[in-house]
Design brief:
alpha/beta; Leucine Aminopeptidase, subunit E, domain 1; Aminopeptidase; 5-stranded mixed β-sheet; protease; aminopeptidase; Macro_dom-like; Leucine_aapep/pepB; aminopeptidase activity
Amino acid sequence: MTPEFAEAGAPSLPLHVVTPEGLEAAKAALGAEASGWLEATGFKADAGELRLLPDAGGGVVGAVVGKGTERARRRLRFGLAKAVAGLPAGVWRLEGDLTAAERAEAALGWLFTQYRFTRYKAGKERGGARLVCPDGVDAGRMLAMARGEFLTRDLINTPAQDMGPEELESAFMALAARFGARTAAVRGDDLLAQGFPMVHAVGRASPRAPRIMEMRWGEAGPAVTLVGKGVCFDTGGLNLKPSSGMNLMKKDMGGAATVLGLAQMVMEAGLPVRLRVIVPAVENVVAGNALKPKDILTSRKGLTVEVNDTDAEGRLILGDALAWAGEEPCDLMVSMATLTGAARVAVGPDLAPYYTDDAGVAAALEAGAVAGFDPVWRMPFHDAYEPVIEPGIADLDNAPGFGFAGSITAALFLRRFADHPRYVHFDIYGHTPTEAPGRPKGGVGQGARALFLGLPAMLGL
């Protein structure tokens, strides 16, 4: 499914955007018949509230949508997208006093409403209401972000039976082929021979072989390396999750899905960078040869890791992947992972917490988050907690019994392997738990748009 705008210059109907405080002036401007209709139907201009404007013959000559109060707009992202489902098929254009940011938010939210996941069930057809891209909005950039987001959602929403390590590799290779990127992959026991022992240890119990994939695109410009956690299903291993803990574990490859969506944005937009994408892909399951509590692994980097919880497996596979990423210079290194429940406790499902030691990167990310309507929250690499991840019997502990700051200690663990001054780690959720405007319940990208829009400032492009 491909998001789209209506063709520029196509005949269109007006969608008047009105605030509660501007409602009376809007009524006067629309004329007596429209004003009377809005009055009779009790229109209050609440966020996303919609009224179609009829003509004398019962046809539709336009519509009015509420922008809501300033407080409501702060609380509801893509509020105007609530109205899209109520619009009849046809081409629409925005009218009203909208800032550049509000026009961009409306355009992106409209594109997001076009998403449907119909692989297993014929879903409700998306409406035929199409938007003319508003003046001043970069249609190409909006479409690149929406298409990347749709890829991420599709990958996360696909159940593990059809999205194991092999299928994730197929999606990875298909994306690379679309843009002419170069690829490589290491699979199964070859992981040991080629220096990825922690990826192998986590994935070896599954009959679906573990692997690590690499994509390279671009010949000039700053070097950007993206690493995404690809745990295609996580039972917890021998530290088995309860059934309630497994219900959403098809999304445990959300980091991989999100970096692939971001990579698509970068390549489609033709950003002048040298892009490298690394995804370790495994299933964490139970078998006689499964990773055991108290095993000690020697990582690609040479650091030893005591396994105190086989359910803290994502940081293990990322450790090898980040060590590989760091074996050649780059200007920015990013990891994305559905890593800890502690991050959800800290900021909930809607915010994407991230870690970086670079203030310039953080500033660019924050600006990108605002411009991309992709909320993020900076968390600290708190050095005082470093001793917590050092168990004594090995260099590192994958699940310290500290009892606090689980997202921070996981990020500190990864930083030991990244060892890069411009390293950014995202601890995302990758799932929308309840229906929201432009975001159906299910898989969702987080942090990708913030990064995509922040890259030019981060890299001096």
